[in-house]
Design a protein that fits this description.
about 350 residues; two-stranded antiparallel sheet; 16 helices; 11 strands; globular
């Protein structure tokens, strides 16, 4: 499966227009759930209703969402997607924007309880909320409250957990259908893959092997974050936004250093978020070396050259599914045309 991720920075009409072009080469559109940007579930619904391509939330998070609403939203979106198109739910604990607005205390346990609740709701169960004490507290649920969807969920919706530390890997083993990795996660970044440091990859490979022995194969999906434009400078400037969102997470500082990335630049990015300068201001503090360690950016030829080197490395690490990740490009319509016409054909010739 080959996907493409559209960040909710472009207008809803631009996202729909881009998805129509991208459907010529891709199987699924991933839309990240970014607070204060356009609503991911609304965008996913609109893309799904075209019937041309599958959809996936990539990622959504329960730290600031009600998991009952998450379950209902994705199940409803699933009714709009044709049976031969994929529907997936990517979930995680949230990144730097979540951290800047909400406490992430007990985020992994909250994620575990949320995924379990969502699955039980999709199965048609009447679910006592008391089974999920952390969620009960967060939702201010009434004593004895029971939740049940009022309609059947007739299709399977795989749940993929965004990669993180050891607790996240245990969570993925226990409750997920797959693991969602991305080049903007320092231990699995372009820089880390190039360096040949295999510790994080070995952990993921061991997890996948353990699941296989249990008869529960684990899908491994890798996001190749890229930003393309005929204007190299415009592409690189725009790519800084996505990189800033990734490195703004304070929990990643040690992982940046371990991957050989510019940790001092990341400190400056996080300070910009704390000063209220937003994504634009944080991106301006990002060094070129840190940008290139996380995101491929530039002209189509630039992107093809670097991706052609990185895809085989990711495959050798066990990743069998890919998506081209945000931000794609400063002009989403131009980026869509370039991806379909100039980037995908040399990398995946069968989709030309």
């Amino acid at each position: 499966m080959l996907g493409v991720q559209i960040a909710p920075w472009a207008s809803a009409r631009e996202v729909l227009s881009a998805s129509a072009v991208l459907a010529k080469a891709f199987d699924v559109v991933w839309v990240p759930d970014q607070m204060l940007a356009r609503n991911a579930h609304v965008l996913l619904s609109a893309v799904a209703a075209t019937g041309n391509i599958g959809v996936a939330s990539g990622i959504t998070f329960p730290v600031s969402r009600n998991p009952i609403d998450m379950a209902s939203a994705m199940a409803t979106i699933g009714e709009l997607v044709p049976p031969d198109r994929p529907v997936l739910m990517g979930v995680g604990a949230g990144g730097s924007l979540v951290s800047s607005l909400f406490s992430k205390r007990d985020a992994t346990e909250l994620l575990r309880q949320s995924v379990t609740l969502v699955r039980r709701l999709w199965a048609g169960e009447a679910v006592p909320l008391a089974d999920f004490p952390l969620l009960t507290e967060r939702l201010n649920a009434r004593d004895g409250a029971t939740a049940r969807l009022t309609y059947p969920v007739t299709r399977e919706i795989p749940v993929l957990v965004a990669v993180g530390g050891p607790r996240t890997l245990r969570l993925a083993h226990d409750v997920a259908d797959g693991l969602l990795c991305t080049s903007t996660y320092p231990p699995l970044s372009y820089a880390a893959l190039r360096s040949g440091d295999g510790a994080p990859v070995r952990e993921i490979s061991a997890l996948a092997a353990r699941r296989a022995r249990e008869g529960r194969p684990l899908r491994l999906v890798y996001g190749l974050n890229c930003c393309v434009s005929a204007d190299r400078g415009a592409a690189r400037t725009f790519a800084r936004r996505q990189a800033a969102l990734a490195v703004g997470n304070p929990a990643l500082r040690s992982k940046l250093a371990d991957a050989g990335l510019d940790a001092e630049s990341a400190d400056a990015v996080r300070a910009a978020f704390e000063e209220g300068l937003g994504v634009e201001g944080a991106g301006r503090r990002l060094s070129d070396s840190l940008l290139d360690g996380l995101i491929v950016s530039g002209t189509p030829d630039d992107c093809v050259e670097r991706l052609a080197q990185l895809i085989p490395v990711a495959r050798s690490a066990g990743f069998e599914e890919f998506y081209l990740g945000a931000p794609l490009g400063p002009d989403i319509e131009e980026a869509s045309r370039l991806l379909v016409g100039s980037v995908v054909p040399p990398l995946w010739p069968e989709r030309a």
